Amino acid sequence: MKITRKDLPKSQVELIIQVEKSEMVKYIDKTTSKLAKQITVPGFRKGEAPKELVMKQIHPTDLLNETFEYAINDSYKQAIEQEKLAPLASPEIKLSEEASQENLEYTAIISIMPELKLPDYKKLAEKITKEDNDISDKDVEDAKKYLQKSRGTQNIVDREAKAGDVVSLDYILTVDKKEFDKSEKMPVEIGAGKFIPGFEDEVIGLKAGDKKEFDIKFPEDYHNKDIAGKIGHFAITVNEIQELNLPAWDEDFAKVLSNGEKTISDLEISLKEGLIAERQKEVQTTYTQAIVDAILAKIEVDSPEVLIMAEREQIIKEMEQRALYSGHTLDDALIQAGKTRDELLEEALPQAEARVKLMLLLKAITAEQNFKADEKEIEHRIHHILEQYPQKEQQNIDMHRLTTIIEAEITDKMALDYLGNL
Fold first, then answer.
1. CB atoms within 10 A of CB 417
2. 3-state class of 221 per DSSP?
């Protein structure tokens, strides 16, 4: 067997594999023996007829196709072992026009994991400053207010809406003269700042049954890029206004919230400790992300197309899942946004490329630092996942793939923690 190798862009390798006559004879013999077991020749038991008689029963084209399939599968395995390749997916096979049962030649295009050269990431990390973990008095007061609201009551009032009220309203949003979104009985807490700037102010002064139309410009950095920076026209109808009644921040409130186990002083201490822990986690996440972003900016890698496409497919699946959680389908959301699935696939491409680049970075860090997933941790996670499926369905799970995924999740976390502690 002769192998000619050529490295291609996008982390692909081209192998031109030639299987010579002497090898093809062996493949033909093995294919004939295999087919002989499936063919009945008059006067002989199945699989026991002489080779010459069996050959007469097999159509030459069938024999050639079966031989080619067997020869390609076997020679391909030998070729990737010889070239020390670890394919990411099944190869793209193209048979030579001159291929015959005496001389088989084919081309295999193989996607492999690229070699990623890490920059001096420790030096990059030195340039990044970690924020402090301090919390403000406002943070504490906001948390107190949140707890008070969790035990507060609401009652319908017949008056104009003011700051602090929760207003139930219907709205229709029009963008570029097209209906973009609508909702019924949507609760809006005036002053909470949960809607786009200016929206809650427009509700102040309205009473139940009032209608109002107004324009608001969406922020340039709005999460929905389709309407970011655009003027939205809202038509709203107020259904009812509810006044919030909050309990006092006192000993009675502390007893209710802690089943009588804490004083108001204890409660405030626990509240601050929780806020500090949350702030520390937020600061750490931001710092780690800043280091990762700095490293990724210095990395140039030719990501395999097969990985990018697989990641894009995963992104679409995640979108479909989120749509189902909200009671819709992804196709419904696309129709509402005036988009096609092809446009969505195109938009998802940069995110897929970024995810693959991050995955390659974490793999490189894992290899450099020789991180290994704990076997007991892997077993624990597998057991937890299997518990969610009936016994019959568990048999259909690809355990090797599941183990590989879990192992990668663990080592990726180890790599991120390592970078976050530089």
1. 12
2. coil
